[in-house]
Structures are given as C-alpha cells and as structure tokens.
Design brief:
By secondary structure, the protein is mainly α. Helix content is 70%, strand content 10%. The chain is built from 13 helices and 4 strands. The longest helix is centred in the middle third of the chain and has 37 residues. The chain starts with a helix and ends with a strand.
Length: 362
Amino acid sequence: MEGASVTVFITVQKIYYPLLCIMGIPANLFTFYMICFRKCGMSDTAIIYLSCLAIVDTFYLVWVILLDLTLTFWLLQPFWHSHPWCGILGFLQYGSLYSSSWIVVVFTIERYLVLRSTAAKQHFSQTRVTKPTCVAIVLVSHLASVPMGWINQVTPVNYTVKGENVTLPRCRYRDETYSTVIVWIATVLSGGIPIVLVIIFNYLIGCHLCRASKLFTKEERRTMRGRSTRGMLRRTILLLGTVSVAFVVLSLPRFVTYSILRTKYNDEAFDRNDYSIPINVASDLANMLQNLNSTTNFLLYCMVSRRFRQELLQVLTCKAKVRELGSLLTHTTMKVFSVADHKTLPASDPVTVVLTNLKQTQ
C-alpha cells in the first residue's frame, strides 16, 4: 500500500469500529429482548441458546471492539496499556470469543442429536438441560482463557508526539515460547475446531433432512409442515443454519491469516503496523470480518424468520401494549376451554348448565 492508501485504510477502521459498536451493541440487546419476551416461533432450547449468544456477543463488542480497537485508533494512551488491565482485557476478550464460538457449536450438535434420536430429543429439548449447558459453556470458556492474561506485558516504548520524544507504557505481546504455544491453542480452540465441527454437523443435518424427506410423499410432507412442532423445528434449523454459515464465512479468513502471521512472520522484528506488507492488510480485513460476526445475528433473524419480522413490526409500530391489554381482557377460563356443545335442563332450574365435549384450544 502507498501512503495515501494507508491513510484511507486507517481512516476506514477508525470509522468502522465505533460504528460497529453503535449499531451492534443495541442490536444484540434488542435481539435478546425479542427472543426472550416476544413469540418469534422458536423452540424453548433455541430461545436459550440464541439469547445467550446475543449476550456474549455484546460482551465481545464491549471488550474487543469498544475498549480495544476503538480506543486504539482514537486515543494515544488507552487505559489498558497499564497493569493490571493489560492482562485482564486479554482474559475477557478470549472468554467472550470462546463462549460465542462454542455456543454455536453446541447448538449445532444439539440440533443434530435431536433430529437423529427420539431419546436425545426428549433429553436435550428440556430447558433444565439447556440452561446449565449454556452456563457451563461460558464458565469453561472463561476458565480456558485464563492463560491469555499472561501473553502480553507492559513495556516502555519511545514515541514522537508533536515533535517531542516521549516514553509511554504499552501492552505488548510477550515474545516467549509459551506465549506462542498459548496463542496457537487459543486460535485452534476459538477458530479451527469450531469451524470444522460446525461444517461437519451442518452437513450431517442436511443429509439427515434429505433422507427424511424422501420417506414421505408431497402430501405427507405438507401435512407434517402444518404441525406446530415440525414447523418450529424447521424454523429453528433454518435459523441455526444461517447463523452457522455466517460464523464460518466470517471467521475462516481470520483463522487463515492469523495462522500465517504466527508461522511465517512470527518474529519480534516484524512490524505488524506496516501496511506495505500484504499480510498485514489481509489480516486487518479478516479481523473486520470476524468482528462483524458479533453484530449480524439481528439482521440474519430478520431475513430468515417471518415470525421474528412480524414481532419486530409490532414492537416498532407500538402494537405491543395493545396486544398485552387485549390478552389481559380476554384471558379467562372461557378462553382456555371452548364449548363445543351444551345442553340446558328444564326451565325449573334455568341457571344450571351442563357443559359437555370440552375441547382445549391452544
């Protein structure tokens, strides 16, 4: 890159990352509200997985995009260039990154097991199993990210600021063997293994659905789609597939470029900020794509879920309160049970009514 191109590329990043925070954090929080408190046609387990994903993606945006990248491009001396924040921020960043990646992986595996086995469906389709699973993913992810607190160290660096030489503490990568090993393990755990597992199990889900569709005629498949559980399962798998594809497409470039940086260019003399080297430009573009992954779920749900769009429209047009008021006025025992047929006794006792053929409505 030439000087003018480098300036433009840096300016793009200075605008891109704050914009990602401004758009992504409210979008994830609003997605959490829509999934948890509106009826978007998702199963109970999908609600738990996707709402948990929205929360950990929000934390990722705060730790990585807002406090790290945005402050790096806009401030000369961000607060985390000092003890103990240099180590704490690395721990929090990788904890949220692990959590986001492995929630998608576990959700994908769970959907495959539910499709394959009736016993697995009865076990994994219960919220009392899904909630501890999500909590365990987040806890184990942060436990696995503890070593990331020691890969960086605060060292004094000389800078020229407004024509004057100053020495500032900087949070720099610790050029030690164990740091390289830890970073490689983190790269594989956050990118390599999750990407491979998501691809494999989505392929298996697709194969299973193709085989299952061949067992029924068009009329039978049309009848099955009309059933609420089948329709809900189909919508959940569609959402999962969309999220999984986005995860792989946006995460794979960073995994590739980061692997190249840690093999071919893994030496202390290499200048990561030199944009005349193509791998630096490619790596920053891959980082921009990976970070976009934490903000796209709201748009993905809008594109693939009709029920999500309907609920979103009701919220935006302020129909939510009207709906709640209507349900409050009409939610009586006569709403729970509808009377299909009734007989009245003779006029001598006109107020006594015998209800028969009670039919429960959904």
